Structures are given as C-alpha cells and as structure tokens.
Amino acid sequence: MGKIKGKNSWIGTDSENYTAQLFGMKVSKDHEFRPDLLTTAINNALLTIELKSGKANKGVVSDYQLYYAITTEQDYKEFFGEKIPKGNHNSKNGKMLFDLNAARQYPAVKTPVAFYYAILNRPDDIKNNDLHCNLSTIQLQWGNHYLVPHEFIFYTFVIQRVKRTGEKFYDALDKVKKIIQLDVLKQYLSPKEVAILEENAGYSLKERKRDKQSWQNIFANDILAIFKKDRSLTSSCGRKRLNKLEFHIPQLKDVKRIEIPGPNGNSIYILAKPEDEKIFNVQLRNNVEAKLEYLEGVKEERADAEEILFEEIIRIKKSLSKKEIKLFQQDKDHFLNTRQKSKIFIRRMNPKIKRKLEALVRWESAKAVPSKTNILQETSTNS
Q: Is-above-0.70 flag for pTM?
C-alpha cells in the first residue's frame, strides 16, 4: 500500500485486516516496498495482493506500487525487453529477482508468485470526521472485491495519465516503464548504484511523491463490465478505457472469470490468468467459504459495539482538560493533530472496551470480552 498518513491509514488497515481474514492471508509488515497481503502456508501457491479500497467502486494506485509483479529475471526480460543488468542482486537460477515478501518468508518454495491487485468497495457513509481514533473503524463496512492481474492496472494507470496530461500514449508508456524499472533495480543494487540511476532518471522517489501524476484512479466498474460481458455496467469513459485495454492486452479475452460468494451477500470477482485459475477457484474459494459465517458474526459484533464506542467517546470528551479542549477546537481536521487526538482517546479509554475494540478492528471476534451492558455499566460507575 505504501505509507499513507492520518485517518486514511486507519481505513486502509481495516480493509487489509478484513481481506486478510477473509482470504486466509496475512498482512505484510513492509508496506513501503511490498504488496499488502500474502499467503500464509508453504504448501499453498504463493499469492500476493496489493489492496486498494475506496468508495464508489474506485481505488487509487501509485506509480511506486507498479513494480511488485516483476519477481523473476524472466519477468524483467518480458516486461522491459532486455536482460537484467549485472548487480548485487540475490537471484538464483532466475527463480527470484528479489524476495517480494513471499519468497523471503518461504525461500524453499519454487512456485512462482502470482501477483494481483484488488479493489475493495466501501459502501458506508462514514466520513473521516466520524473517526476519532483508529478503533473508530469498527463503523466501516466493506462490499465487493475485484481482483485483476498486473497488466490490467498498469495499462489503466497509463491510460489515465494520458487523459490527465495530454501526453502521447507511447510517451507516457515509456515514462511509466522507466519508473517501474528504476523501482525494480533499486531493490537489489547498492545505494551508490541507486543514486546513479535516480540521477540519470532525473527524479527521486521523494520528488515523485510530490507529483500528482504519480497517482491514478482505477475503476472496479471496468472490471465488472468485463466480468459480466456487459459494457453498460461502466461509464462512457470506462467503455473507452476498455477499448484501449483490450487493444493493449489481447490476453484479456483468455481470462478466467471466477466469482466467489463473500460475507453478507457480497461477491469476489476475479479476472484470473489461466495459469492462476486453481489458486482462486480452489485455494481462495476454500479459504473464503471457511470464513463466511465467522466474519458475518464479527460484522454483527462490530455493529453492536458502536454504541459502546459512542458512549466512550462522549465520556472522554467530558473529561478533557482545557489544553486538550483547545487542541480539539483548533484545526479540527488537520493531519498534524490527528495522532495526538487519537492518543488522547486511546489513553483515556476503559481498558476492557479498548481490548474489545482492538479485537474487532482486527476483524476478530471479541466475545470473550464482557458484554455491552456490563461494560457500559462499569464505565458509567467509573466516570
């Protein structure tokens, strides 16, 4: 996912926890340079997912999240049309270019890594102002997942960039490929070699993060239109994107359409490469089916716990010091104060309530924690 700040990071973490529980995967510890999710068992095919969550069936992807799919020397050669340059990389017989998380965790596994992007829709009407601390994300709701291979997101990124900048398509394509190539090589070259690459490219990662073209929208409705073979499911702009995508990705006609029922009437729509069909149609389907009832129960627990959360927020606000009240009154929505405010709520929160909410934001059952009535009565007595 890359580093995101403030309340958006709380939302992103909740989406990752939900998807990891549902898919039977684990959340990566290295969000700056690796995909968000990876498989957990060494006897499974290795699957990694970069998750993009958002409202209105949209997500946002950054250019420094586009290199994740280049995992072997063969990938490098096919994508860039050249052999990987000599350097201090840890490739062994062309199997792995660098660890890509899964390879680091399971170095004995010879199975190639299947890398996909996922868009997760958020259908609730919760606003950032409704999130007083990271535990407030129990209010969030999650809808359908849409999974696609790297090529789909890569070309969508380029198409969107062209639309915004007016560049010629192949000029933009070349620029984005050079950015991806730089990010790949940075994973195994020495710091000195990386510095030379960035100097030759004319931009560093820090400079790219200040460039608004480093982020582009991706659209789940486009994926759904392909899945359902119904172009009316996307917008007029979406239909134009699909025409371009089908031109630049002829293998789209060969994708396997896989739908897996998710919790609470939602679905997981997957456009899978033929060689990855078993990963989704067997491995992922089994994981999801095993978690449906459990996660539907956790969703109910989260809804029930909202009253506990609201009562606790009200109680804490009444106990604020003059200094803390001033902090809340000034600059209400500014990121610089977000973490300070969150720490105040967490520090003042009833420990039992805190433990309950911490479980629920991980999308784990909190039934071992005392009941809502007991907690609210205890909180009222303590205040």
A: yes
